[in-house]
Amino acid sequence: MFIEANILTYDLAQPQRPSEYVQQVLIPEAGLRLIAEDQKKIGLHDVSLEEARAIMAESVEFGAYMHEA
Question: In whole angstroms, what is the distance from residue 27 CA to residue 4 CA?
């Protein structure tokens, strides 16, 4: 989406390629914000991005088990 529309160019993504930037930066950041949003929707307090990062780290083992390659 970003690459095809020339929103994310090689110059903007330096020193990474645009696809690496999407995978290593944008997707994890979107995940953190989705975790924070989900926590708020299920009635918990507002979750900071640091707390969302901790939740993400705690769920790595479960995610790896559920989605074995």
Answer: 17
